[in-house]
Predict the 3D structure of the following.
Amino acid sequence: ADFIPHIKNITKIGLYHLKNIARVCPILSRANAETLMHAFITSRIDYCNALLSGLPKKSISGLQLLQNSAARVLMKTRKREHITPVLGSLHWLPVCFRIDFKVLLMVFKCLNGLGPSYLSELLLLYKPSRSLRSSGSRLLVIPKVRTHIHGKASFQYYGPHLWNELPGDLRAAENVHVFRNRLKTHVFSLAFN
């Protein structure tokens, strides 16, 4: 599916709301302004964003521009200033990391009987032919794909690819709450270190 028109629409609507929020920002507390940003901007960026997994960064650049602009308005940062430290101080993951976070959370849920069956059926645990140290590490089979662009963006490929890159202790988390907290810390360190 072509998500470019969808991304452009989210960006356009988000920038419209951001312009209106920027007008009232001077009379709001930072906490209230941040609440507005989450209600009108980040909620749009995050809604069903796992569908955008595996897309090139260029394709989601409009969403990243929207998030950067929201951070600049909220923190009163000039355009020339580097945005990464601003996003880090707000604890806002960049868009591509938000997407990966959502995909990894869904993979964990699928592996633990908490995800939808139509996605769970796409994931296969790797079983080595002989006993290896990796046999208890909950690795997933990464299927071969025919088309480079759409195949590698599919949940069936992209989910296991991301999952297998996680540290073993994270893959072995005992429940979704522990996994979510550890994953957020892990992805945050990847994004900002």
